[in-house]
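Bug report

Summary: structure tokens for HIT family protein differ between web form and batch submission.
Environment: batch mode, default settings.
Steps: 1) Submit the sequence below via batch. 2) Compare with the web form result.

Sequence submitted:
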Amino acid sequence: MNQPEFRLDGRLEADTHFLLDAPLCRIGLMDDARFPWLILVPRVPNVREWPDLGTEHQLQLQAEINAAARALQSVFPHGQKLNIAALGNVVPQLHIHVILRHDGDAAWPAPVWNSGQRQPYGEAEAGRIISLLITSISETFSN
């Protein structure tokens, strides 16, 4: 019998710039220049909740969350607080938000969700940030 294939939810695909496929997750940069914000989606079909993953995948997901968080802190040194969340109220596919906040950001101290109008990255700025984040995350997995 064929195993189901992983498919990224269309809303997540539309809202992010692809960075890379880590060992478990597809990692994307949220297309909102107001917030340093990564989205990690385990490439496991039909997963809605963290406990739906096996223990080995849960441990790998945690390692990838940590790598994403360290990359954001490296690329955006002005950050003060990491917000890490798996809400899924709108998009049921398991995905993890890793957001680096600071007291001057557009939503501080409130949550970023539904906070004003999204400001998409310009092509050049998105490319620059993506390159820096890929380098930082890739170094984690090559060590």
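Above is the batch result. After comparison, the two runs are identical; trailing whitespace caused the diff. The chain has a mean pLDDT of 95. Residues 10-136 form a domain with the HIT family, subunit A fold (CATH 3.30.428.10).
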